[in-house]
């Protein structure tokens, strides 16, 4: 069922239809109960296409309304649109919902009062949060740098071991293959151990330097002062 909006021309047609005698065929048309009521037609209210077609048919067959261009389908549909019913009203909040909202508002007011009465603690909390986030970012940067450094170290050790073993293998080309293989493996093993020992010493020195840096207390002293009086500096 298609519903249309009632136009002023439709209002006039409906009233002309309702003013017909009771004995005429106009009053014998029956419509389903789900169709909108036309007892008090108002512009913008819904009307079904079937109702409009029946009204036009009855008015055209009436002796008084014959040959009236105001009651043609083309004329009555001018300015009409598809009727869109208004959205249903929002349901009334329940008592539990109202009590919950009141409690939440009261809690929020208490927190706002505490923030106003203790501004120092709130500022300290913000500063602590910023310091924590900065520390986390610094820790992430240090961890990323350590990973890159360790990967570069592993690559360097592998390159050193391979290069040393190849150099020994080529230098001992006049010896037998087992001897050359043994020397190459022994030299590469020594190079790997040396690289690990050197890197371990480097890490130990870096760690000790960090510990000593934390123990140092930064001291500040005034080296020079001056007083500004007007345009003169003393």
Strand content: under 5%
Cα-atom radius of gyration: 48 Å
* Beginning-to-end CA distance, first to last residue: 97 Å
Strand order of the largest sheet: 1-2
The number of distinct β-strands equals 4
Rounded average pLDDT: 76
- The residue fraction in helices comes out at 55-70%
Assign the structural class, choosing from mainly alpha, mainly beta, alpha/beta, alpha+beta, or little secondary structure: mainly alpha
- Shape estimate: elongated
Strand count, sense and barrel status of the largest sheet are: 2 strands, antiparallel
How would you characterize this protein structure?
The chain is built from 6 helices and 4 strands; from the N terminus they run βαβαααααββ. With 234 residues, the protein is mainly alpha-helical.
Provide a concise account of the structure shown.
Helices cover 61% and strands 4% of the residues. With 234 residues, it is mainly α.
